[in-house]
Design brief:
By secondary structure, this protein is α/β, with parallel strands linked by helices. Helix content is 48%, strand content 13%. It has helices spanning 16-25, 39-52, 68-81, 105-133, 154-173, 193-197, 215-227, 237-248, 251-260, and strands at 7-11, 31-36, 57-62, 87-90, 136-141, 179-184, 232-233. The chain has a 7-stranded parallel β-sheet, with helices on both faces. Helix 1 crosses helix 7. It is globular and about 55 Å long.
Length: 265
């Protein structure tokens, strides 16, 4: 799908990767619907984009995507307003780090709702119209953590495994419809995400420098992959190599490595 003149809906648009998607698409899109919990940041972003791109139509929607009642109200409003969406970027996501036995059950529930349920429901709601128009693209922001079980991020990694698997299956189902699906699987990216995901008393674990990529590169690579109709994109050569090596390892070897890594409580 060519992105010029697209009508994009971006979740989690107030910061990090979502905000960068809005910035990089602003000069190409016809319209955008920016969704997040923090409306003051959305207003700031919308004002900035419209100053730089006066022809761009920007709609902002304050929605807590961890609240399924708010999600349903948002979907009903989309139907009433009949705003066109031919590019869906499911970017909103939550993380957590630390032993599962010490995790916050409410946080686990919210993470599962946002990362899995909301992404699925929003995709299901918008997809039939894309198919009817024979034009559309869905970019699901997954994670390289979804390729492997990750001790210390058990729920987060599992939700991202769902996103990647869902994206691959949906892509196969949509072959020939004019609608493409791509899963973005970044490794460590320096954004607010690490600060929000860390537990009290713990330092954010970004990872070795050779696999860290900038948010600008992540978004640039994702949009390029979407236009090239690629199924998965892993930004950064270091991360591509790390994932390749880890996926080639037999599971018994990985289990041994997991045992050797100390867990931080």
């Amino acid at each position: 799908m060519k992105l010029d003149g697209c009508n994009a809906l971006i979740t989690g648009a107030s910061a990090g990767i979502g905000r960068e998607f809005a910035r990089q698409l602003a000069g190409r899109a016809r319209s955008m619907i920016l969704v997040a919990r923090r409306d003051e940041r959305l207003i700031e972003l919308a004002d900035q984009l419209q100053r730089e791109y006066p022809k761009l139509l920007v709609h902002i929607r304050k929605v807590d995507l961890g609240d399924l009642r708010q999600l349903q109200a948002f979907l009903e409003r989309l139907d009433r307003e009949k705003l066109e969406v031919d590019l869906l970027i499911n970017n909103a996501g939550l993380g957590d780090s630390g032993p599962f036995a010490e995790s916050d059950p409410d946080r686990n529930k919210e993470m599962t709702v946002v990362n899995v349920t909301t992404l699925t429901l929003l995709t299901r709601h918008l997809l039939p119209r894309m198919i009817a128009q024979h034009r559309g693209a869905i970019l699901n922001v997954s994670s390289s953590a979804g390729f492997l079980p990750i001790p210390g991020s058990a729920v987060y990694a599992a939700t991202k495994a769902y996103v990647t698997s869902f994206s691959e299956a949906l892509r196969a189902e949509l072959r020939g419809t004019g609608v493409s699906v791509c899963a973005l699987c970044p490794g460590p990216v320096v954004t607010e995400f690490q600060q929000v995901a860390k537990r009290e008393g713990m330092k954010p674990n970004i990872g070795p420098k050779f696999i860290v990529v900038t948010v600008q590169q992540v978004v640039h690579d994702a949009l390029a992959a979407l236009e090239a109709d690629r199924p998965i994109v892993i930004p950064g050569l270091g991360m591509k190599f790390a994932i390749l090596v880890s996926r080639l390892m037999p599971m018994p070897v990985l289990r041994l490595l997991f045992r050797l890594v100390p867990m931080r409580g």
